[in-house]
Design brief:
It contains 1 helix and 3 strands, in the order E-E-E-H. It is of the alpha+beta class. It has one domain. The protein has a 3-stranded antiparallel beta sheet.
Length: 66
C-alpha cells in the first residue's frame, strides 16, 4: 500500500493510505504523520482479519512509504 503525504497551509502534515478508506491522519511533521497512519492502517487491517473481511495483500503493505 502507498502512503500519500501533503503539507497543509497551517504547517501540519496529512498522511493517507488511499487503499484503506478513511485512513488519514494529521501530524506536526511528515515523519509523525507517516508513523501515525501506519499504526492506524495496521489496526484497520487487523480488525478486518478478525472479522473475516477482505484485506490488501500483506506483502504489499506500505510499499513506497517514506
Amino acid at each position: 500500500m502507498n502512503i500519500e503525504t501533503e503539507q497543509e497551509e497551517d504547517g501540519r502534515w496529512i498522511a493517507e493510505v488511499p487503499e484503506l478508506s478513511g485512513v488519514m491522519v494529521y501530524g506536526n511533521s511528515k515523519e509523525e504523520a507517516v508513523l501515525k497512519v501506519k499504526a492506524l492502517a495496521l489496526r484497520i487491517i487487523a480488525d478486518r482479519i478478525e472479522h473475516g473481511e477482505d484485506t490488501p495483500e500483506l506483502g504489499e503493505v506500505f510499499a513506497g512509504s517514506v
